[in-house]
Amino acid sequence: MELQILDKTFVPFISAAEIDKEIQRIAKDLHNNFQNEVPVFLVVLNGAFMFAADLLKHYTTPAQVSFVKVASYQGTETTGKVNQLLGLDVDLTNKHVVIVEDIVDTGTTITAIQQVINTQKVKSMQVAALFFKPEAYTQTVEISHVGFRIPNKFIVGYGLDYNKQGRNLPEVYQIK
Ligand code: HPA
Ligand code: MG
């Protein structure tokens, strides 16, 4: 079934069942990674809220969970866009950190987040992204856990929005 959001038409792309399957795989990989360690999951709002909820329900060993938001604003002409990390309220010293993202496309946001995290003496840092657009990616940060590698076309649903709408959908739609 086609979906209309504002001026755009979307078509079904990835079902709720397919999403759940990949999330279970990522949770299993994370369990294997951490064994007896207690990682800190840093969930990047707003987009990652649904992915994080489902991922962490499958991650059943001890963990810390916290939420951050990236504020992007125009800096000076020379600095261009500036990303600021808001709400980081955990001491990450000596912690294994997992950044939970809905989607990585150009990679500038995840790179900015990593740079902030790296100012603390973390034990390790990984990225778990439900969606990754390799054709759009311009950065070098390794995306350790990827749910789906997808073409560089706009998607909505499962946390991702188009002009603030569509985040609540349990499956993912692609622009027609
Ligand atoms: N959809 C929604 N939000 C996004 C996307 C997308 O395809 N890529 C980066 N942010
Ligand atoms: Mg995001």
TrEMBL record:
UniProt cofactor(s): Mg(2+)
Main subcellular localisation: cytoplasm
Domain of life, source organism: Bacteria
NCBIfam families, sorted: HGPRTase
Domain (Phosphoribosyltransferase) ranges: 18-162
Pfam family, one: Pribosyltran
EC number: 2.4.2.8
EC main group: transferase
Entry keyword Transferase: yes
UniProt keyword annotations, A-Z: Cytoplasm, Glycosyltransferase, Magnesium, Metal-binding, Nucleotide-binding, Purine salvage, Transferase
Record-linked InterPro entries: HGPRT (IPR050408), Hxn_phspho_trans (IPR005904), PRTase-like (IPR029057), PRTase_dom (IPR000836)
Reaction catalysis annotation: GMP + diphosphate = guanine + 5-phospho-alpha-D-ribose 1-diphosphate; IMP + diphosphate = hypoxanthine + 5-phospho-alpha-D-ribose 1-diphosphate
Signal peptide positions (record): none
Pathway the protein acts in: Purine metabolism; IMP biosynthesis via salvage pathway; IMP from hypoxanthine: step 1/1
Xref: CDD domains: PRTases_typeI
Family label: Belongs to the purine/pyrimidine phosphoribosyltransferase family.
Record flagged with keyword Membrane: no
Native source species: Paenimyroides aestuarii
Subcellular location: Cytoplasm
GO molecular function, one term: glycosyltransferase activity
Record-given protein name: Hypoxanthine phosphoribosyltransferase
